[in-house]
């Protein structure tokens, strides 16, 4: 038996999330189908985490057990030839049998992308949230710092979250801005919000972004973020930002 670890990127637009669901098209379903066609085995693929419908991944990490003798250097090409164009395997390596893509993950980074312009960008409409009004990026940066450290993130997760503990640790946050003028708007630009933590609750990053955007537009003060966090009440936080702006950016292991 062999334990194969892979890094996978995907455009989540056409999928009902990562996890297999009855009668739905999912990332996990497509990956398991490709491995099955290649090896003739029924495999269960484990991921570092489950992305929601419409969410993307730059470097999702997966692993699965196989009895196939295919050389490790041939796996990527073989799998990619059996995957749709919006899913790509970038790396493959053989790991100890006890490696687990989710349990062994130490840090995950998500990136949320915002296209700040009067007009939508037709070329990035599936990977960036369009925001027509100006944003106070420095205030957004400062507000995110209230979330760094270990906290109970009940205010920033969906009420449908099923896990018992809502305590998570945010190691770092950052906001990057890049001017990207477009026709009819010389002040247009792209904002990337990065959040790195030891784990994330259902819709946690998207609710954080939705709340921080309200800080950026002046609807909330920066200090409200701490008050919302301490209250542990989802109703006090902002809206859940659209899924298509979110990308699982990186997963780190020891």
Automatic annotation (TrEMBL):
> What's one Pfam family here?
PseudoU_synth_1
Q: What class of enzyme is it?
A: isomerase
Superkingdom assignment: Bacteria
Q: Does the keyword tRNA processing apply?
A: yes
Pinpoint the Pseudouridine synthase I TruA alpha/beta domain residues: 8-104, 145-254
Positions binding substrate in this chain are 110
Instruction: Write out the catalytic residues in the record.
Output: 52
Q: What is its EC number?
A: 5.4.99.12
Supply the alphabetized keyword list: Isomerase, tRNA processing
A GO MF annotation of the entry reads: tRNA pseudouridine(38-40) synthase activity
Q: Is this entry keyworded tRNA processing?
A: yes
Q: Which InterPro entries match?
A: PsdUridine_synth_cat_dom_sf, PsdUridine_synth_TruA, PsdUridine_synth_TruA_a/b_dom, PsdUridine_synth_TruA_C, TruA/RsuA/RluB/E/F_N
Q: Which reaction does it catalyse?
A: uridine(38/39/40) in tRNA = pseudouridine(38/39/40) in tRNA
How does this polypeptide assemble, per the annotation?
Homodimer.
Q: What does this protein do?
A: Formation of pseudouridine at positions 38, 39 and 40 in the anticodon stem and loop of transfer RNAs.
The record's comment on protein family reads: Belongs to the tRNA pseudouridine synthase TruA family.
* Official protein name in the record: tRNA pseudouridine synthase A
Source organism per entry reads Paenibacillus residui
